[in-house]
Amino acid sequence: MRLMNSQDYGFSATAIGGLVYKFMCLCYRSLDRVFDIIYWPVISLLLWGFTSMFIASTSSFSGVMEFFLGGAVLWSLFWRAQTDVGTFILEDFWSRNVYNLFASPVTSIELFVAIGLIGLIRCILSFLFLSFLAWGLYAFNIMDIGGTAIAVFTSVLLLFGWVIGILIAALIFRYGLRIQILAWSVGFIIQPFSCVFYPLDSMPGWVQGIAITLPSTHVFEGLRYAIATGELAWQPLLISLGLTAVLFVLSIAYFQYALYQAKKLGLLTRFEMA
Amino acid sequence: MALLEIRALRKRYGTVEALRGLSLDVERGEFFGLLGPNGAGKSTTINILLGLIIADSGSIRIFDHDFTSNHVAIRRRMNVAAAFTSMNGVLTVWENLMVYGRIYGVKHLPRKIDELLERFEITDLAKRRLQHLSSGQHTRVTLCKGFLNDPELLLLDECTVGLDPDIAEKTRRALQAVQRERKTTILFTSHNMNEVEELCGRIAFLSQGEILRVDTATHIKRLIPHQVVEVAFQAGSDLTPIRQLHGISRIEQNGDHALRFILDDPTRQLDPLLRHLTQSGNPIVDIHVSRPTLEDVFIKVARGEL
């Protein structure tokens, strides 16, 4: 069997519908999946909201609230997108459903389209909830940044979240459940380098070298620029969008490779017995 | 043209050679058994046929198409029901079957699910979460999933494990009925030899990654040629002359007044033995002739004696 051939790129709307139906059932039948739309983002919003209130009251620095709350709300999108891919894949491992799923005619493309669709719905719900909460608690309206800016920022963060989620899913297929913690922990590693709550040029040189390669850094730099000037820095944003799109394709290719390796080594069937 | 053609299939895991050039043909509509001890290569074969494991070399043709280059289209026309696997535990039986029905593109899905739940007598479980079912109930849900898309080729891997004798019997009847009605080709593995013998027309006996023999159960049992005749005599019988009988492969004492005769060539040895016994003048109180069972063959294969 080759690594990938044309049939692996095809997809059936009915199969995607079946998978979306499964993820929806998982969402409303599992309190965890409902809880995680709200819990961590709200904690983060409260934390950064109070922090920004304190800083605003003790310094003359303007736009503190927008910087921190805008960062918190947008970061929750990346977080949601990334962990959703990992946890929805892990659900099949936990349920010992990997065997039946991969013995069925489902393709990886169908699987990721379905996860993407359900993830998008969950991201929108989470984003709307946080936006209303930020407005209610701190009188911060994220839409003041501008509809176009929000659309570009969220696109890059969603796509980048999926990239990381797909890479983690690939690693889980290759190395099994012993590395499942990555599904929740990788976001914490990426966050400090993404300049979510501080500007890029405030970081040490070696950190800047890493940060600049992350599409998320350009989003948060762009956010601060938009808040400060009311304009969008199009060029870095488009570069980061392009970079994310390339990473997205590469992550899918890596997933296919990891799945192929798992099949070569007979790992898919061993996960069932784990 | 066989529905399933496997040619020279090889698979190695490190130093362990799981399949050593396995070749097999399964005809359309056959109920075909795959037998062998643990590690013989049954599950590896089935998992390769499902695309869950990639073989090192060899070829597979299913429905007259190369499996490697058409595996998605081929898998739409086949299905599997395997013990020790599951679906999503937090979803109900109905929801799980809806998911797989859509994945397989089943038409009139709710009606189909109702029909299968009824056939496997689990209609009352439709709204129950999978994680709350007993293993026997779970097995029957797995079988419903296996038949959802009316597969032309169905792989059943130890699918009756965990069923009580009554439900196991009903399940076998249901399997036979569905297979007859739809002319489904079934590749069946089980460690229950009676079940294999009852259900399967032909059986492939695997050992150490190779096929030892493909034949009917009757012929496979002939791999062990001998028959055992156990005779109990009335108390006080003089068994000495009988024990000196020539032409019998082996004679063993089987209790105080009983003997066991092992016949390596029953067609030549049985008739003279019975004549001699009746002429010996010792009253016979019980006689039992046992032929080798599939289980005997299985045990001998597992111990490397065949």
| Helix-and-strand structural type of chain A | mainly alpha
By CATH, the superfamily of the domain at 1-77 and 151-161 and 182-221 in chain B comes out as P-loop containing nucleotide triphosphate hydrolases
Number of helices of chain B: 11
Q: How much of the polypeptide of chain A forms β-strand, as a percent range?
A: under 5%
Number of helices of chain A: 11
Question: What is the top-level CATH class of the domain at 1-77 and 151-161 and 182-221 in chain B?
Answer: Alpha Beta
Computed Rg of chain B: 24 Å
What class would the helix/strand composition of chain B place it in? Answer: alpha/beta
Give an overview in words.
The complex is a heterodimer of chains A (274) and B (306). Chain A is mainly alpha-helical and 274 residues long. Chain A is 78% helix and 0% strand. Among the domains of chain B are: 1-77 and 151-161 and 182-221, Rossmann fold; 227-302, 2-Layer Sandwich (Alpha-Beta Plaits), CATH 3.30.70. The radius of gyration of chain B is 24 Å and the shape is elongated. The mean pLDDT of chain B is 90. The chains are: A mainly alpha (274), B alpha/beta (306). Chain A binds chain B through residues 1-2, 5, 7-8, 10, 12, 14-15, 17-19, 21-22, 25-26, 29-30, 91-92, 94-97, 99-100, 102-107, 260, 263-266, 268-269, 272-273, and chain B through 11, 13, 43-44, 47, 50-55, 68-73, 75-76, 80, 82, 84-91, 95, 98-105, 129, 145.
Offer a concise description of the structure.
Chain A is mostly helical. Chain A contains 11 helices and no strands.
Task: Summarize the SSE layout with pairings.
The complex is a heterodimer of chains A (274) and B (306).
Chain A: H1 13-29, H2 31-58, H3 64-94, H4 98-103, H5 108-138, H6 147-175, H7 182-193, H8 205-211, H9 215-229, H10 234-264, H11 267-273
Helix pairs in contact in A: 1-2, 1-5, 2-3, 2-5, 3-5, 3-6, 3-7, 3-9, 6-9, 6-10, 9-10
Chain B: E1 4-13, E2 16-26, E3 31-35, H1 42-49, E4 57-62, E5 65-66, H2 67-76, E6 78-82, H3 93-103, H4 109-119, H5 135-147, E7 153-157, H6 165-182, E8 185-189, H7 193-199, E9 202-207, E10 210-215, H8 217-221, E11 227-233, H9 240-243, E12 250-253, E13 258-263, H10 266-279, E14 284-290, H11 294-302
Parallel strand pairs in B: 3-8, 3-9, 6-7, 7-8
Antiparallel strand pairs in B: 1-2, 1-4, 4-5, 9-10, 11-13, 11-14, 12-13
